[in-house]
């Protein structure tokens, strides 16, 4: 028999029926409906063992045949600018437009991505940069200005968070850390060193 458990279950129903069990009893043993057992036995009577085998769902018919699929990398090899796009970068939306132009078949970008994976073609994403970006000025800035900025400690986030944390544990809504100092007194819900306004 096959390794398909559904086909095995159908075959079990046939063997149980041959031993003299009723369809209702077979349905209870296999935990299926009596109608399912009836269909299986009818399929076995009509087609024999082949009637018990599973038939995978074929899915929707492909809109592009294998010959058309093999042409897609050839179309893409001409470059994106050959199809009127700006820049030589292929993205899934652009490939979808090329397929629509060449074969008059519309695909979603997610399906185009799956199609390109089967063709072993990697779509490229454009790098978005400002048109006025000056690479030489950026390289010069990294050499001259960045090391000095790195050495300065204009802002220390660790000190800020420890300062605000100490202020936030005070029992008053307004703490002495952010307002004028009042007389020192301990708060029952805070550390004894915190100063609260009276």
Overview of the structural elements:
By secondary structure, this protein is an all-alpha fold. Among the domains are: 48 residues; 53 residues, no CATH class; 36 residues, no CATH class. 49% of the residues lie in helices and 0% in strands. The protein has 9 helices and no strands. α2 crosses α3 and α5 packs across α6. The longest helix has 14 residues. The N and C termini lie far apart (87 Å). The C terminus is likely disordered.
Give the structure's gist in a few sentences.
The protein is mainly α and 198 residues long.
Topology:
Layout (H helix, E strand, L loop, with lengths): L4 H14 L4 H8 L3 H14 L18 H12 L14 H12 L5 H10 L16 H10 L1 H6 L5 H12 L30
Structural class: mainly alpha
Q: What is the radius of gyration computed over CA atoms, rounded to a whole number of angstroms? A: 37 Å
Given the C-alpha coordinates, what overall shape results? elongated
> Share of helix among residues?
40-55%
What are the main properties of this structure?
198 residues; single chain; disordered C terminus; 0% strand; mainly alpha; 9 helices
């Amino acid at each position: 028999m096959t390794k398909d458990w559904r086909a095995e279950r159908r075959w079990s129903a046939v063997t149980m029926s041959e031993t003299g069990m009723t369809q209702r009893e077979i349905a209870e043993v296999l935990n299926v409906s009596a109608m399912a057992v009836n269909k299986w036995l009818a399929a076995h009577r009509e087609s024999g063992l082949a009637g018990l085998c599973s038939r995978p769902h074929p899915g929707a018919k492909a809109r592009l045949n294998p010959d058309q699929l093999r042409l897609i990398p050839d179309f893409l090899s001409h470059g994106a600018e050959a199809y009127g796009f700006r820049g030589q970068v292929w993205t899934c939306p652009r490939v979808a437009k090329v397929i629509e132009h060449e074969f008059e078949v519309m695909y979603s970008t997610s399906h185009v991505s799956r199609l390109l994976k089967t063709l072993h073609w990697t779509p490229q994403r454009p790098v978005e940069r400002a048109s006025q970006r000056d690479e030489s000025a950026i390289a010069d800035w990294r050499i001259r200005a960045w090391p000095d900025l790195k050495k300065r400690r204009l802002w220390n986030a660790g000190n800020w968070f420890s300062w605000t944390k100490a202020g936030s544990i005070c029992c008053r809504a307004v703490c002495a850390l952010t307002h004028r100092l009042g007389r020192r007194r301990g708060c029952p819900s805070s550390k004894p060193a915190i100063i609260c306004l009276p």
